[in-house]
Fold:
Amino acid sequence: MRSNLCLSDLGAGENPPVAAVRVTGGLWGERLRVNREITLPVEYEQCKKTGRLEAWKLTWKPGDPNPPHIYWDSDVAKWLEAAGYSLALYPDPELEKRCDEVIGWMAAAQQPDGYLNTHYIAVAPDKRWSNLRDCHELYCAGHLMEAAVAYFEGTGKRLFLDIVCRYADYIGKVFGRGENQLRGYPGHQEIELALVKLARVTGETRYLDLAKYFIDERGQKPYYYDIEKARENRPDSWLDHPGPNNLPPYNHMQAHAPVREQQDADGHAVRACYLYAAMASVAKATGDQSLVDACHTLWDSVTTKRMYITGGVGSSRFGERFTFDYDLPNEEAYAETCAAIALVFFANRMMCLEADAKYADVMERALYNGIISGVSHDGTHFFYDNILASHPLYHTFSRQKSPRRQEWYPTSCCPPNIARLLASLGSYVYTIGDQTVWTHLYIDSQAELDLGNGKKARITQATEYPWKGDIALTIGLDAPADFTLALRIPGWCRQVTVTVNGKAVVLADVMSNGYALLSRNWQDGDQVALHLDMPVERVYAHPAVRQNGGKVALQRGPIVYCLEEADNGPNLADLRLPPAAELTVVTGPAELDGAPIIIIGPALRRDLTPWAGKLYATDRPAYTACQMTAIPYFLWANRAPGEMTVWITE
Ligand code: ZN
Structure:
C-alpha cells in the first residue's frame, strides 16, 4: 500500500530530478560531455574486460579462474546508475540496450526469494549473510537499489526497480529485531541512503523503516559482529579490534558506538560519509531531532577538523580512514575520490535538512577540487587517492597507489562513482521547497523546476563560473508566480552585488544563513545578475595542522591551485612565495585547456652554493628570484610526471 512519507518542510527542500537541469556549457558542460561520451563507454569496457558483466550470467563454476568478487556488483551498479542519469537527459538507444541487457541478466540471476548477489550465488551459495562485517553484501544491494531508482527515473522502465524492490523486501525479512531475524547491519554502509531513495520513489515507508533500523542498530551492544564471528567460528582480525592502535572495536566501520553517541568522524571515510548522508536523509524523513543533532556533531568534526582544503577526507591510507583532529598529511594523503563524493552526499542531505550555505560551500569545495581531480581531463584515467603533494619517485617506496591516474583498479569503486556523480550533477544545482528555489551552485545550465501547485519555473544560468564571477539568471514563467529565489553567496566571497532587472538589491536586508532571499512576484523574463568578486586568496591552515606550518595555499573562487614541476621545475618544497608577492591571473597554457585561469607571481628559491657537495650547511642562505605558476589542482598530473604541491612555503 502506498502512503505519504513524512517528508518535513524543513531546510532547503529536495533535489529536483536529474532530468530537470541540463548543464549547457563551461567547465561542467565539457566535463559532463567527456563523462557521457568517453568515461561511460570506457567503464563499460572495463567491467566487461574484468569479468564484472559476465559474472551476472552466473556461468562461473568452482575451479574456473576469476571468480566474481564480493564487490563487483557495486561497480556494475554504479555504472548503470550513471547510465540511468545520462539517459534521463541524453537518450542513447545503444547505451540503453547495453543497460537492458545487463538488467536482463540480473532478472534471470535473481533467486526465487529475491536474493541477488553474483559472488554469493555463484561462489559461496551456503555463505549468504555469514560475514556482514567484511563482505559487502548489503553494500552491493544498496548500489543496485540506487541504480534501479536512477534507471527508472531516467527511462521509465520498471523491471530493474521491481528487481530491487523484491530484493529489499527479502532483506527486510532477513534483518530486524523480530524473532528469526538477524539483528545485523552492513560492514560497509550504503544501503541505508539507497533505501531512503527507494522509499521516496515507491512511496513505500517500509524501506525507510529498514534504513532507520540499520542506522539505529549500528553500534548497539552486544556487537552483532561479535555474535556473527562466534557463530561462524571466524578468527579475530584487525577489523574486530584495531589492536595496537587502541581503537575501540569496529571503529573502522563506525560500529563502535550507537550513531547518536559518536562524537568524531571516525574509521573508513567512505563508509562514514555514506552513513552520515543516510542519517541526514532519515532525520529529514522522520523528523528525528536526536539524529539531526548527531549529524551536526559529525558534520563539524569532518569539516572543521578533518577535511583537506580540496574537500578530500580520510587522511590515512591505513584503513582509508579518518585519524585525529588536524592530521592532514599532504604527500601521504589518502583522500579517496569516493570519500569526497560521499561528503557531497552528506553535504547535500544536510542542506536539504537545513538551509545553511556552509553545506553547499563544502559540496562545492569537494566538487571543484578533490572529486574532479579523480578523473583525467580526457576521461579515461582515474585517481583512487588524491594526494596534495607528490614526488614521482616517492610512491615507489610508499603505499601510495600511484602519482598517475590509472585506467582501472582491482578495487575500482572510484571510477564508476565519479561517473554517477557527474552524470547527476544537474540535480545538485538547486533544491526546491516551501515556495523557494534554493540555488546552491553556479553552473551554465537550463532548468525546468516544479514549484508545486502545478507551476513551473524555467531558470537559465549563463556564466563562465568558476573562472569568472558573473552569473546571469533568467526566469521563465507561463504566468507570474510568487516564490523566493534563494541565491547562495559562497563563503569564499567577500564582495557581492545582486541586481533584479538592473536594480541593486540591498543584501543586508535579504541575507539568511549565507543565502540572499529574493522574494517577489516573478514575471516571465525577469533577470537576476549576481557578481561575485573573485580575487586570488591566500589560505592558511589551522596552526594545529602540523604539515602546513609556514605554508600557504592559493584559491580563487572555489578552485584550489597547486604547483607542478612542469611549470616550476623540480624541488617545489624550496620554492617560496613572499607574503607581499603580487599574484596575477592569466590564461593557462594550451595543453591545459581545462584551465582558462592560472596564477603567476614572483617567488624565491635558495641559492644552492652553500650546499655544494654537502647535505647540510651552516651558511645563511641567499635567495634568487624566480617565477611561480599555479594551476588548478584538479588538472594536475595531466602532463609529464613530476612533482606537485598544493601548500607552498611562504
Ligand atoms: Zn573509491
Summary: The pocket of zinc ion is lined by residues 336-338, 384, 413-414, 417 (CB under 6 Å). The chain is about 35% helix and 15% strand. The first strand starts at residue 21 and ends at 23.
